[in-house]
Amino acid sequence: MCVNGAERFHLLFYGILSGILFWALRIDVQNKLIYVYTTILVCLVGAIDEFIQAILPMRCFDMRDIVMNWFSGGLGTLFIVFVLKPVWDTAKGGKGCCLKNPYT
Length: 104
Prior knowledge:
Elements: H1 10-25, H2 33-55, H3 63-92
Helix pairs in contact: 1-2, 1-3, 2-3
């Protein structure tokens, strides 16, 4: 079995990764596709991470880890959509303000 302590943190780490990617993408992406882009990038990073583990001698590849990474990234994006975005909108006093470019 490839179960160790670090694999239990996939949910947390890839959820945080989706938040970081969203924060980075919101500067350039001004529409609702930002959520799709964020989720796709998290899924790609998770899959690439597992494929790298497949070629390393002391690591092992597990399809369940890829699914867990995708699930975690999706949950992180949903957290942004349903929790953080309403908080940002309320704090800024406008609708959709979190998607505006802060540098313009």
